Amino acid sequence: MSRMIIIELIDAVIEQIKRDLNDNEDATAIVELLLSVPRDALEAYLPDSYEPSICPTCNGSGEGMHEGTTCRVCKGKGES
Ligand SMILES: [Zn+2]
Description:
mainly alpha, 3 helices
């Protein structure tokens, strides 16, 4: 979980909140609220399965072995 940047973390928490509340309202107010919440609390809110793993083939870059190519394992996502 420590690899996630805070914006990704907040996005993930918002998605989780929407699932929990079955609510698709504008997320702006939720973002402002979450920015005041400690990061640990945000991470604790997410299911354990959330953490994406870095693609070992491209080491998360999404690039293939040669310049201008896309990693064939993760299709350029950088996650496996
Ligand atoms: Zn890859």
